[in-house]
Automatic annotation (TrEMBL):
Its main location: cytoplasm. GO terms for molecular function: 3-methyl-2-oxobutanoate hydroxymethyltransferase activity; magnesium ion binding; methyltransferase activity. GO terms for cellular component: cytoplasm. Homodecamer; pentamer of dimers. Mg(2+) binds at D46, D85, E117. It catalyses: (6R)-5,10-methylene-5,6,7,8-tetrahydrofolate + 3-methyl-2-oxobutanoate + H2O = 2-dehydropantoate + (6S)-5,6,7,8-tetrahydrofolate. It comes from Alkalithermobacter paradoxus. Binds 1 Mg(2+) ion per subunit. InterPro entries: Pantoate_hydroxy_MeTrfase, Pyrv/PenolPyrv_kinase-like_dom, Pyrv_kinase-like_dom_sf. The active site is at E184 (proton acceptor). One of its GO terms (biological process) is methylation. This is 3-methyl-2-oxobutanoate hydroxymethyltransferase.
Amino acid sequence: MNKKFTVTSFAECKQRNEKITMLTGYDYSTAKLIDEAGIECILVGDSLGMVVLGYESTLEVTVDDIIHHCKAVARGTKNAFIVGDMPFLSYHINIEETIKNAGRIIQEGKAHGVKLEGGVEVVDKIKAITNAQIPVMGHIGLTPQSINMFGGFKVQGKSEEQAKKIINDAIELEKAGVFAIVLEGIPEKLAQIITDKLTIPTIGIGAGKYCDGQVLVTNDMLGMFSDFTPKFVKKYSNLKDAIISSTKEYISEVKSSAFPSKEHTFSINEEVLEKLY
Ligand SMILES: Nc1nc(=O)c2c([nH]1)NC[C@@H]1CN(c3ccc(C(=O)N[C@@H](CCC(=O)O)C(=O)O)cc3)CN21
Ligand SMILES: CC(C)C(=O)C(=O)O
Ligand SMILES: [Mg+2]
């Protein structure tokens, strides 16, 4: 099992009705493990800010932050397609800044593609980035960089007006040339309508089972992040408890001198030792 995943593999997945798997990754060790497990796409998400850097929202994340963590993920990844999230303000100012920032995430960060949030309002930026031969992933619905417009991380697309806007955004993003679209925090049936309308794959997070693929924040699904737990998170492990209990055991063994024991200790030749006394 040593197959590199590409934008073409994702298109083929949709044609074959095979679900696409994506998780976030922020560091070398974790990327190496999820890549070895066979994950097809690793997103160096701007959730980095909340999960790894302890920020209140994703708005504080910079292009340099994303590049720093993309580099680490790239060093641990053999097969997965790496997507770098474009942070807040990195694709809003003008086309030139946008291409430069997307280009840096590819050139310095060693990502294979970028993702940015928004619908019709970012179509010109998407076209410019794809013209620079950089694959772009769209992201609509609950777009966390819009937290101050939404008034919180709230499910989107429940009203007819909102739902129609999201459907139209999806169609326009496909026309603009994105290779896939993340659908976040929208009703399952709306995600189904969009998935059926599009020829490119949809990747859901809190968007139900009809999407062509699924993405979760790795720290959420491993149960090692608990500041908040969105309804869409399934915990496949409970690493939080594992980390706390292991740390408590380590503290107790160091305090009691049970650790380190002989097996974790180096010895010195008796004759050499004599000379030291
Ligand atoms: N650890 C983590 N996981 C994520 O999925 C994630 C981040 N961080 N940071 C960036 C955004 C923020 N996200 C979030 C955060 C909270 C909810 C949440 O609590 N939603 C409510 C629904 C609220 C409503 O519509 O009324 C829920 O119950 O799921 C959803 C998405 C998704 N992203
Ligand atoms: C939740 C995913 C889609 C994301 O954008 C992120 O992790 O930043
Ligand atoms: Mg993001």
